[in-house]
TrEMBL record:
It comes from Corynebacterium otitidis ATCC 51513. This is Putative secreted protein. The chain crosses the membrane at residues 7-28, 34-54. Keywords: Membrane, Transmembrane, Transmembrane helix.
Amino acid sequence: MKKTPLGGLAATGVFVALFAAIFTWRFYHLQGPVPPVVPAVFVGVAVICGYLGVKVKSRREEGRIGLDRSQLNPVTAAQFLVVGKAAAWTGAIVGGYYAGRAAYQLAQASWLASAADELPGVAAAAATAIAMAGAGIYLERACEVPPPTEGETR
């Protein structure tokens, strides 16, 4: 599996942010405030990804990845890698959406009371989603294994 390209994540986030800003400009009246549970979920996923990344990285550095009971199963590490990749892409897409929405609301906050009132929740959702993307990248990179040496077989 290939590494998640950081440029691809950034480009996706920027594209979605531009789309969200245009969408919010046109349909702001249909969007409600961001519930407080949204940033909390993003923080929870980021914390889980960070914790798993630290654990997998320490096991990998100690040479404790294998099929023994005391070791981390390689299939489990591969599953964590997929979780990290999913968190990274989800964070980039959702973070881009909330960043675009926050950009529109920041521009309108001086004369639109609802935009000013909802801005902290939208900004928190954007920041925590981007943090989730970062934690997902960290987990994905922590789950990488070096290529086999010349004498080893796959």
